[in-house]
Amino acid sequence: MSDKVVANYIEEHFVCNFQKVSSFSVLERKSWHGKHSTKVGGNVAAYFCLPDGRVIHAVAGPVTPQLLLNEARWVVDLHNMAMLESDNKEAAYSRFLREAHVERLLVEHGIDLTRVVPIEMSASKLASIRRTARQQEFFQKQRNLASPRKSHATLVDTTKRYQWKVHQLLVENPLPPLGQIYKPVFESILNQNISTVPVNVVER
Q1: Is the pLDDT reported for residue 151 higher than 50?
Q2: Which of 17, 65, 72, 118 is deepest in the core (most CB within 10 A)?
Q3: What's this model's pTM, rounded to 2 decimal places?
Q4: Rounded to an integer, what distance in angstroms lies between the CA atom of residue 12 and that of residue 78?
Q5: Alpha-carbon span 67 to 65, nearest angstrom
């Protein structure tokens, strides 16, 4: 991880691991500066888990260092709040996480799953979330009017396209085991086939 601020935060709050689940190629070029490697194909996803491997949150696809840091901080804050609110009861902890994904799905992506999926949530909390979503939508429209329209998609746009599906997945099935969620994330969200084929190294 090249960004030291992000790397330090991740190292402080998480235990990191890596697992290759799809095939890709590595293009190696030699020059008088040395050898340079470029990854071709494949994709990436980050999973934030409890020590037993159940997933609190996931980030699908490549993101900027700042976006990854934002999501990591959200997970830490969310976990601490869930522990406080649940009084160490697993069902309440899981319900709190589910409500958090419902909120982000509605506020950040304008998708209200509570209208189609039975979700236990107090009427006052749901009303508050919907009010925040309306405010967010208004502010976004104002920002769009104030800034010129982009002619091309950005990494942030791509991330948003993936992330609403991640939140939906974790609303429908909060705290799933990593082994249960990584395939839907890779195959259904990132459209990447799971593969055990070794990395193909091409030298030029």
Answers
A1: no
A2: 72
A3: 0.79
A4: 16
A5: 6
